[in-house]
Amino acid sequence: MEPVERFQLDALAYLQCALGLLGSVVLRRMDSAYGRYASPGPAFRVPARAAWALQELPSLAVPLGVCAGTAAERLRRAPNRILLAMFLVHYAQRSLIFPFLIRGGKPMPLYTFVLAFMFCIYNGYLQSRYLSQYAVYADDWVTDPRFLVGFCLWLIGMLINIHSDHILRNLRKPGETGYKIPRGGLFEYVTAANYFGEVVEWCGYSLAGWSLQGGAFALFTFCILFTRAQQHHQWYLEKFEDYPKFRKIIIPFLF
Ligand SMILES: NC(=O)c1ccc[n+]([C@@H]2O[C@H](COP(=O)([O-])OP(=O)(O)OC[C@H]3O[C@@H](n4cnc5c(N)ncnc54)[C@H](OP(=O)(O)O)[C@@H]3O)[C@@H](O)[C@H]2O)c1
């Protein structure tokens, strides 16, 4: 069975790359339909906090189930444990902390919620199954420059992401639901500082793990967030006359 499952995990990773590329094409044609772009129709919606907590939870629950349900042989090795911990730390923050800090977030359309929920099951399974059963690293992988640089990028990216989400949240006073120009931190350089942090984080994870599965997740994240960042950038330029014109979209000093 093992070679078959190994092949399946590679196929799932290639499919994730294809979904990311397809997602960016589809999102270019229709705005990512949540937050400021959610149309005010009668569609069924999930309150923002519940939506974020529930849709992201599989990224935490599925890996824990995968590791508890089988003899996770590879998790005896330090690199595998650290890489899985990197994934879990992010999603513990995203599903257990981030939702409860949201201020005035727009309710999530049901289909967006379902898609995000399914993606988290898919990716949670892909990353955790690969790391717990198949990823093989040399004993000294944790001192390899790829692991060290990747780990630092992951940590810096996560801090940028959390700090930038904090800046966005604090633009609103309790009870407010409108939008203002973000100031401070990396928002002085880019429109989507929170997405920049998230992209750096998963590129770091991918570099540290040096695997098709990690690379597929980083590519998927970049495709989706770059497209949404472009939409945000255009939206700010149209909505605020005094929006700083020198700000890039997502990568400081580049684009
Ligand atoms: N890995 C992935 O593929 C992926 C995909 C999507 C998101 N994420 C992550 O999930 C987190 C949230 O994503 P998101 O797409 O919801 O981010 P977002 O559009 O930047 O919004 C984040 C929060 O800040 C509020 N907000 C944004 N801009 C604001 C402004 N100018 N003034 C006042 N409030 C503002 C939003 O309120 P409203 O809801 O009212 O707009 C929302 O509650 C981010 O950290 C992102 O990196 C990851």
TrEMBL record:
Which spans are transmembrane here? 12-30, 82-102, 108-126, 147-164, 207-227
Give the catalysed reaction(s), semicolon-separated: 5alpha-pregnane-3,20-dione + NADP(+) = progesterone + NADPH + H(+); androst-4-ene-3,17-dione + NADPH + H(+) = 5alpha-androstan-3,17-dione + NADP(+); a 3-oxo-5alpha-steroid + NADP(+) = a 3-oxo-Delta(4)-steroid + NADPH + H(+); 17beta-hydroxy-5alpha-androstan-3-one + NADP(+) = testosterone + NADPH + H(+)
What is its EC class?
oxidoreductase
Its domain of life reads Eukaryota
Pfam families, per this entry? Steroid_dh
InterPro entries membership: 3-oxo-5-alpha-steroid_4-DH, 3-oxo-5_a-steroid_4-DH_C, SRD5A/TECR
Instruction: Write out the entry's keywords from A to Z.
Output: Differentiation, Endoplasmic reticulum, Lipid metabolism, Membrane, Microsome, NADP, Oxidoreductase, Sexual differentiation, Transmembrane, Transmembrane helix
Q: In the UniProt record, which is one GO cellular component term?
A: endoplasmic reticulum membrane
Where is the protein localized? Answer: Endoplasmic reticulum membrane; Microsome membrane
Molecular function GO labels: 3-oxo-5-alpha-steroid 4-dehydrogenase (NADP+) activity
Task: Give the membrane topology, semicolon-separated if more than one.
Answer: Multi-pass membrane protein
What PROSITE patterns does this protein map onto? S5A_REDUCTASE
* E.C. no: 1.3.1.22
Mind listing the GO biological process terms from this record?
androgen biosynthetic process; cell differentiation; sex differentiation
Tell me the function of this protein.
Converts testosterone into 5-alpha-dihydrotestosterone and progesterone or corticosterone into their corresponding 5-alpha-3-oxosteroids. It plays a central role in sexual differentiation and androgen physiology.
The protein depicted here goes by the name 3-oxo-5alpha-steroid 4-dehydrogenase (NADP(+))
Question: Gene that codes for this?
Answer: SRD5A1
